[in-house]
Amino acid sequence: MSPSALRVRGRRTAAALVFFGLLAVTTSATPASAQSAPVTPAPRCHGETAVVLVDASNEPDLYAAYLLAGVLSTNCILDAGDRHDEKLPAATLALMDTATLTEGYAIGGTAAVPTGKLTVRLVWRRAGGEDRWATLHIVGDAASNPAKLPRVDPKLLPETQSPSQSGDSAADTFTDVSAGGWHSCGLRVDGTIECWGYEVPRRTAPPSDTFSAVSAGSLHSCGLRVEGTIDCWGINHQGQATPPDGTFTAVSAGGGHSCGLRTTGVATCWGSDDDGEATVPDGTFIEVSAGGFHSCGLRISGSVTCWGSDLNGQATPPRGAFISVSAGKSHSCGLRANGALVCWGAHGLGDGQTMSPDGEFIAVSDGQLHSCGLRTDGTLECWGADDQLARTSTDEIVRVRDGRSSPPDGEFVAISAGGEHSCGLRRDGTVACWGNNGSGQATPPGGTFTSADIGGKYSCGVLPSGRIAC
Predict the structure, then answer these.
(1) What is the pLDDT averaged over residues 292-302?
(2) What is the dihedral sign for C-alpha 80, 45, 49, 310?
């Protein structure tokens, strides 16, 4: 899912040291013939989200590939093959089909890795300079500053979607909707869930049962059954889709973890706990929200408690009483009793997702680099990123609009902000989505829903019968 799914900061210092060590070796006076060229390791792609593609016969590019893989914390380094061949080696193609892979990084320019080798299933970025050594320097900069990670190649950007909605007939209505990274989910009035968007085995295939709520995370989804048990499906390499036993009143699927609120008011989280995002503090809650690498809960007193990563202050809420809270990728927002919004955490690269607007709201939802709120008059307002950075073939950084923060007009009753798209539920029960639609996450299906949730590259909804559809 864009760099949001990649664990960067823990490897920055070590990766930077590796870079300068490699640079010293490759620029020393020792003849090239006397140096031992790096050998491409046996790739381990299962469970990884990012792949680094490189012409393994080129020594400087291979050094850069090793370094970038360290920055991205991935073991999936694949050989792009002969640069004069427009096709990838068969072994590389086979590993490209690994279900968990979502991001691709090509080392070098189009001469090193031709565009025709970059499969459309992944979101591709290039790490390429004017020459091989410039490429190595670009990757070295990213080792010490993740903001300098390669951006999306604009020629490979997924299509964007203008505000789209399900059918206008009474049969095309929902009761709730929610957006995730590159997927969305809806709850139909019959209690079934339907999800749409990025397709990975079982990620958009919910159980055929009845549910009362649904939540789509980055690579997985969870649903709350009418009897109070939780069922999750999708990628489970961190245990995020293996919920505990017991009865719950709410569920929230995040990046690599999930959280549920038990009938006793105790919050329980499972899955990735690298930053403490699944280590819930003592006490009871009335609401819980799982974000990228942190979580937040609303206590009976109205105070908000957050836990997990606090790198950007996203887990340090302000004092005072709230009536709702939402955890995004690296920021959080809360709704006060007077309808005012308060946000805290990362501002992004000048995106302003924590710069909440004035006025009265009745709901708020945080996405990756943007947030959306539902006003008391039923209109929507979103703020933060409305575009994404992209690197051109001439290595120029440009902004390409995707429209995730540009909601349509009309009256809504629910809102959900996802990774690079958003969805809202209209008063007549139809769903409208807008923003990045590269995986179909902003194109909701027809039918009647009661709620929906938006995840990374797909979406799910609960049908009126209680059955889930993704």
Answers:
(1) 96
(2) negative
47 burial class (0-12, 13-18, 19+ CB within 10 angstroms)?
Answer: middle
Residue whose tokens read 């609120």:
261
Mean pLDDT of 67-91: 86
Cβ partners under 8 Å of residue 3, min gap 6:
103, 146, 149
First to last CA, the chain: 18
| DSSP structure class, residue 355 | -
Round to whole Å and give the CA distance between 178 and 298: 20
* pTM (global) more than 0.70: no
Round to whole Å and give the CA distance between 354 and 341.
Answer: 10
Q: How far is CA 142 from the centre of its chain?
A: 20
Domains of the chain: 3-150 (3.40.50.12090), 160-469 (2.130.10.30)
Joined together, the tokens standing for residue 377 give 């008059």
CB atoms within 10 A of CB 187: 36
Summarize the confidence of residues 268-294 as an average pLDDT: 96
DSSP for 378-420 reads S-EEEEE-SEEEEE-TTS-EEEEE--TT-PPSS-EEEEEE-SS
Token pair for 402: 């995707």
> pLDDT, tens digit, for every residue of 197-218?
876 445 557 788 888 888 888 8
Query: Is there a contact between 322 and 334 (Cβ–Cβ < 8 Å)?
Result: yes
Q: Tell me what pLDDT residue 247 has.
A: 95
Winning range, highest mean pLDDT, from 48-52, 63-67, 373-377, 453-457: 373-377
Half-sphere exposure in the Cβ direction for 157 (13 Å, CA): 22
DSSP designation for 151: P
pLDDT at 165: 56
Residue carrying the six token digits 């997924």:
158
Indicate if the alpha-carbon torsion angle 141, 144, 147, 151 is positive or negative. positive
